[in-house]
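Quick one: structure for this chain?
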Amino acid sequence: MAGYILALDQGTTSSRAILYDDHARPIKMVQQPTTLQTPRAGFVEQDAQQIWQTQISCAHDVINRAGLLATDVTSIAITNQRESIVMWDKQTGKPLAPAIIWQDRRTANYCKTLAAESATNSMNDPVHQGVDSVNMAHEVQRITGLRLDPYFSASKIAWLLENNPKLSVRASRGEIAVGTIDSWLIYKLTGGEHVIDVTNASRTLLFDIHKLEWSETLCDRFAIPMNILPKVLPSDGDFGKTKKGLFAKQIPIQAVLGDQQAALFGQGCLDAGMAKNTYGTGCFMLMNIGQQPKLSEHKLLTTIAWQRKTSAIRPDNLSFDQIVQSGKRMLQPPKKEVTYALEGSVFMAGAIVQWLRDNLGMIQQSSDVEDLARQVDSSEDVVLLPAFTGLGAPYWRSDISASITGMSRGTTKAHIARAALEAVAYQTYDVLIAMQKDSPHPLTELRVDGGAANNDLLMQFQADLLGVPVLRPRDTEITAKGAALLAGLKTGLYDESTMKASWQVDRVFEPSMSADARERHLAKWQQAIKRSLMPL
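Got it. Here's what it folds into:
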C-alpha cells in the first residue's frame, strides 16, 4: 500500500512538518521557529496565531519540497508540546489571549494554597467513605495521577478566567473554547472540531485517568465550566478531516499524541518495563507500566501513554453456530485499550544550553557546547543547578532558584559548559532512582532521543551515572515518528513489522566509570541539591 503520513510536530520553540513514506522513513522535513514571550517574572507565553501559521506553513512547504501533492498524503498525525493552553472564540476561531506555555509559573502560589485545602467537595465519593479528610494535593493525584503544580493546564485556564471577567461571563454562555495545542491545531485544521486526544487530556489536571472522562469534581474546584472543554478521543481516534480548501483534498487526522507519549511509542517501548528519555527543551523519562495505573509514591507522575482501538473479534472465540445459538453479536466492537506510564519531568535540559548561548554568549550554536566542554577533563567542583523555573521531579519545588556553585579563580567557561551537560544527566539520574522505587520492573537499558541525545559526551556521562547501557537510535527525532507510526497503523499503511524495522540503533553507550568516581560525582550533585533546599 503506497502513501505518506504527514506528521505535524508543534514544540515549545518551533513548528515542524515531516513526511514519512510507506516504510516509516522520513523523506522531508520543514521547520520554522516560534517565539516565546516572558512579559513578567514567571510568565511564559506564545502567540497562538503564530503557532498555527508556522505549523500550516510547514505542512504546505514539506509537501511541495518533497515533490508531492496533497492527494499523496494518506493521513495526518499530530504531536505537540503538552500542558500549554489556548483559549479562543468558538465563532471566529480567534485566540482570546496569548497561549500560556507549560513552563509558565504564574499560578505557583494559587497551586500551593489549593494543594493544602481539604478535598471536602469530593467526600461523598465512595473512595473516601470512612477516610479522614484528605487535602487537594492527594485528591488531584488520586484522580489524575499528577501533582497539583502550575506546570499543568488547569491552573492556567483558571487564571485566564479569574483575571479576565469578560471571558468568565462568555465561558458561562458557552461562547469560548479552550484546549491544549493539539486541540487548537485540530480546530484550525478542520474548521471547527473541538476535540482532544486522551494523552493530552491526561495532562490537564482535569481528567480522570481511571474513568477516562473529565472530572466534574476537579472542574468545579478550579471553577472551569465543563462546556468549554473539548471532547476526548482515543489516540488513534477519528479527529476529523482538514477543511475544504486548506489542501488539495480533505486529509483525515487519525493519530494524536502528546510529545513525550509519542516518543515512548516511537522508541518501540510497547512492553511494560521499557523506558525512554527525551532530551529536548526539558527532559522527560517515561516507563511503560502496562494497562493498570499505579500511583507513584516517590513524586513521579502517572499518565496515559496512549489509548488504541483493538480489532473487532468474535466473542469468546466461539464458532459461527455457537454465536447464532447464543444470540450474541457476530463481532464484539473494538476495545479501546489504555496503556499507562510513569513519568519524571525535568524542566530544564536543552534549555540550559540555550541559556549558555543566548544569555551568557558562551557559544554561537547549541551544538558547540560539546566541543567547549571537552576542553577540560572535569568540571572540578563546579555544579550548575538549573532551577530556572524551579525543580521538577522528584523534588517539585517551584520556589528554588538556579545557581552555579563550586567556582574558583581558575574556573573557565569550559568548566561551566561541562557542568551544564552534567546537570542534565544528574537530573535524569534522580528521576530514574525514584522510578525504580515505584516500578516492579528493573531498568536494563535506556532508549534516548531528542536533540541533546546527539551529544556523545552527555550520553556517555548518562550511562556512567545510571549504570545501564544508553541506546541512541539512528533517528533521534523520534517524537514525530511515534505519531506517524500510530497513524500508519490506524490506516493500514504500516504493520507491526514496520514498527520493529523503523527502530535501529546508532550507538550503544556502555557504562565505563569506576564506582568510586561515580559516587564522587553524585555526592557533589546531592550536596548542591541539599544546599538549595535548605531554608534561608
